Amino acid sequence: MDKRSFLKATALTLAGSAISPLALSSEKKSPLHNFPTVNMDIAPISALERKQRISKAQELMRKEGFSAIILEPGAAMDYFTGIQWWRSERLTSVVIPRDGDIAVVCPFFEEPSIRETLSVGDDVRVWQEHESPFAKVCQILKDRAVDKGKIGFENTVRYFVLENTMALLPNAKHTSADPITLGCRMYKSTHELQLLHKANEVTLRAYEYTYSQLKVGMSQHDVKTLMKSTLSKLGGNSAWCLALFNEASAFPHGTKAEQFIREGSIVLMDSGCSVHGYQADISRTFVIGSPTKQQRHVWDTVRQGQDIAFEKAQVGTEAGFIDDAVRKYYESLNFGPKYKLPGLSHRTGHGIGMEGHESINFVHGEQMLLKQGMCFSNEPGIYLPEQFGVRLEDCLYMGEKHAHWFTEPPASLDAPLGKLANKIS
After folding, report:
1. Is the pTM of the predicted complex or chain greater than 0.85?
2. Which structural domains are found in the chain, ordered by start?
3. What's the start-to-end Cα distance of the chain, in Å?
């Protein structure tokens, strides 16, 4: 998102953030001592950790025959350097060479702002409005003697950046930087797991409070606003929430049609936040009032699907097998087959870390083997068109041998919140 889009989106969010009188009155009825608290005494990623990440990337580059990799603003740039910036037509880029110090290219007038979050390295090269930033990138490569061979571009780098950079490097060829960037980012350190655990704790506590406030008559806007407000009050950043009621819950990512809670409503929520840049993603499905037999059956089936995915997530197992195992169970109960509805119309889970969706996924055909430090969502929903949908989502991480929860799934539809898993040490 560029700065203009960011400012516009922020203005729209503020303009639409008012909570309805019903939601406000519901919140006021809850005693303040019931509001959940979270101890946010956890350190962000340090400069030393970023230096270790760069060293690992350089080790992988030497192993894979890369000369350098090039990044644009986003999670990868933040991961290696701490720079938190946006993308625009004016290039800001980081070059990580196979050997030697990293370097940053940015517009002249942005240098002071870039340095505010840059936590490693001191080589910042600026370009004026009439100059080519791509020439600056190429000069860094020449200065490091890595302007030949394979130049890796992180997978979100825009085409015009690649095209204009490579036009100045006749003795180099471009390739995907995935073997380097994913080779670092997919495998979380203990500190990263602790940050993910904290983000999940904040999100689960926000669910506990928001669930206690759900009332007949509330709109999706009411619930989303209440949840995001609670996440922020508890210390979560970049709070987000999807709230789907009744027939709308059969659409995994919702519809534009406004829905209201009524007696017997399905309320499907998908929400999360970040703590020091690391994301949580939790889904819960509630019934307001007494569940029907069908609602309970689908909820219990999804809950069993979560257990199957968790049990099959063993180190050394192909990631795609997790998805296959869940679908096999669902098909035995006449859901599906495959992606057919009623059934599971999306993958069983996705990678998670600094981004809500990262590689790799629990999806059919994914052959990468599960390894220690990988993190995933586990969300095998079931959707019945024109009726309702159920999604339960908790995130997990791979230990030495098998999966471990960040949050443990709920025990039943009658106790639909779940609990926080043990701290990571």
Report:
1. yes
2. 47-185 (3.40.350.10), 188-420 (3.90.230.10)
3. 35
